[in-house]
From TrEMBL, chain A:
<dbReference type="GO" id="GO:0005737">
    <property type="term" value="C:cytoplasm"/>
</dbReference>
<dbReference type="InterPro" id="IPR001020">
    <property type="entry name" value="PTS_HPr_His_P_site"/>
</dbReference>
<dbReference type="Pfam" id="PF00381">
    <property type="entry name" value="PTS-HPr"/>
</dbReference>
<dbReference type="GO" id="GO:0009401">
    <property type="term" value="P:phosphoenolpyruvate-dependent sugar phosphotransferase system"/>
</dbReference>
<dbReference type="InterPro" id="IPR050399">
    <property type="entry name" value="HPr"/>
</dbReference>
<feature type="domain" description="HPr">
    <location>
        <begin position="1"/>
        <end position="85"/>
    </location>
</feature>
<dbReference type="InterPro" id="IPR000032">
    <property type="entry name" value="HPr-like"/>
</dbReference>
<comment type="function">
    <text>General (non sugar-specific) component of the phosphoenolpyruvate-dependent sugar phosphotransferase system (sugar PTS). This major carbohydrate active-transport system catalyzes the phosphorylation of incoming sugar substrates concomitantly with their translocation across the cell membrane. The phosphoryl group from phosphoenolpyruvate (PEP) is transferred to the phosphoryl carrier protein HPr by enzyme I. Phospho-HPr then transfers it to the PTS EIIA domain.</text>
</comment>
<dbReference type="InterPro" id="IPR002114">
    <property type="entry name" value="PTS_HPr_Ser_P_site"/>
</dbReference>
TrEMBL record, chain B:
<dbReference type="Pfam" id="PF05524">
    <property type="entry name" value="PEP-utilisers_N"/>
</dbReference>
<dbReference type="InterPro" id="IPR000121">
    <property type="entry name" value="PEP_util_C"/>
</dbReference>
<feature type="compositionally biased region" description="Basic and acidic residues">
    <location>
        <begin position="106"/>
        <end position="123"/>
    </location>
</feature>
<feature type="compositionally biased region" description="Gly residues">
    <location>
        <begin position="11"/>
        <end position="36"/>
    </location>
</feature>
<dbReference type="InterPro" id="IPR024692">
    <property type="entry name" value="PTS_EI"/>
</dbReference>
<dbReference type="InterPro" id="IPR008731">
    <property type="entry name" value="PTS_EIN"/>
</dbReference>
<keyword id="KW-0963">Cytoplasm</keyword>
<keyword id="KW-0418">Kinase</keyword>
<keyword id="KW-0762">Sugar transport</keyword>
Amino acid sequence: MAERRVSVTSEVGLHARPAATFVQTAAKASYDVTIAKAGGTPVSAKSILSVLALDVRQGESIVISAEGEGADALLDELAQIAAAP
Amino acid sequence: MNTRRTPAGGEATGPGPLTGSGDGVTGQGALPGAGETGRKAPGTGGTATDQGSLPARREGAAGRAETETGPAPLTGPGSPGSLTGTAVSPGAGYGPAHVLAGEIPEPDKESRHGGDAATERARAERAVEEVAADLEARGARAGGEAQEVLGAQALMARDPSLAAEVGALIDRGVAAPRAVFDAFGKYRDLLAAAGGYLAERVTDLDDIRDRTIAVLTGLPMPGVPASAAEPFVLVARDLAPADTALLSKDVVAAFVTEQGGPTSHTAILARAMGVPAVVGCAGATAIAPGTPVLVDGGSGEVLLAPGPDRVAAARRAVEARRAALSAADGPGATADGHAVPLLANIGGPRDLPDALEHGAEGVGLYRTEFLFLDRASAPSAKEQEEAYRAVFEAFPGGRVVVRTLDSGADKPLAFLPPPEEEPNPALGERGLRMFRRYPEIMAAQLGALAAAAAGTSAKVQVMAPMVATAEEAEWFAEACRTAGLDSAGIMIEVPSAALRAADLVRAVDFFSIGTNDLTQYALAADRQVSAVAGLQDPWHPAVLDLIAMAASAASETGKGCGVCGEAAADPVLACVLVGMGVTSLSMGAPALPWVRAALARHTLDECRSAAVTARSAVSARDAKAAARAVLPGLEDLGL
């Protein structure tokens, strides 16, 4: 299981356009991809509603996890989206 | 009705819909009349629809119990059959009410399918896909922002977790419409509980749910007629993007919604369409369909079955406003010819067409951080130079005031990491303070500005944000001179800089007052904390005093002192600022015609008496009321 821990720096948090981009990217994977707030329960990173409902605000850390073919590259891409200001 | 936004509305749209980038650099200024609590006047007619049978909706937008001395209503307040809400898009609209509320009833709690779960699941999946595809198709037809909003809604409709939830309920025997209703309910509760931006998205979700249930049950799709014999006033609890995307001014005379605030879809799209709108209007959905309704998007008043004289008066008032606005053109000046350059606030070259269209004489605030946001490393000197040059060349011979990078803990940049966690970013290492830590970033920016300025005829002025002391002002001015820039100034945002303006002015060539931050610091009210938003009012006499101190220190040394905050976009306050000795005003482009017209109707002496009387008031509200009382020319602008 590969994992990335990222601090969200966007002013809008992981909402709005960053959330949509994040979910659309995760949806490309054929395997499960999860996102959790640090210490929280993981939810599907392919679900816009779950990601929005996490209510990740600016400055908060998230953990993204996945296991499968190319998971490392996908997680890097997701981490970059989540960390983009 | 021809104005896209209310005078102070240039920066007031907030985070916006799901696709909004929410840069947050600009202020949180309220629209005129915003903040009023919806009230229902006694004697309101109208038939209440059966609200008990409707799906639960989120509760109304939180209204503050605060009445603003906003624009004068077109009609007498408290008249029989009137409702009041928050005015979010100016102008008057009149037409029969088309009430759009709860056309999709909640599916029966106990409804079960026939037993073939797989078929029922496939039916639900098809319905969701049909709705998603329809949203996308509407988006494609509408284009622009609506397309992004509807695309985001389609993404919600196709949410795999939602589909799993629907499937699980159907497997337990629940009929598809009810399964859809319950599955959406879980997420709507989560979003509503989060409040703020997420709660605003509940409307989007409810719309997808209702559309899906309509497909499943064969009910007519909720929505708005795309054509009508005469333009109607669209009344709803709240409007979803799909409702509004294909509407035009030819069909809709005005919007009235029971819920929503200045950042709701209705508000944003109404302003974009130039259609009057009142949101947060309690009791609106009780208006009987077909009732003639007169909507004043400047005051927030909604009049039911008004007499023909009222309607005619409202139309005349709107026409007069339009004429008054279009009559004012040319450079900004008072009635007696005292010149006050009117400049635009911009975030980059993309804002130039709007600025030029509204008659900006130059740029009073070029927020360069937009060039630095959304990237992993600082823009190259060449890239910066090109962006700056594009702006300079748009105003040959005109003034362009550039604010150096205003980053900090609340607007962090990946390549300028904050040194430590700041418990209170507004008081942390931001603005010029960040440059003290990263002088090479400042040197690169000043160098690029000097290089871009060298090839143009624009009068380039450079200023630093968040300056607190004379020593900082000297340090920045010296850096500008080293870079070869002629005119170095500072923003007055920190009360210490205003209080000791006479010390700071010696080091620099000009001041520009950032009233949003100055207000935040003077009243110790964080702009990001909505609970203290009531204190974020530049009309507060303490703020006026600080502005006056800065303006008079500049004037004593013959230097300019502009204002580039939200305050400059308020046509009434603009007169007061000029009366206090402010020499130029810079604002979001849509406010320029209003401010130009307000100044043109008053002499410098009238502005001065407005300033004196405002500063002698004890509260922000009294200051505004006192100033208005001595500015007679506001009335024909409907201000």
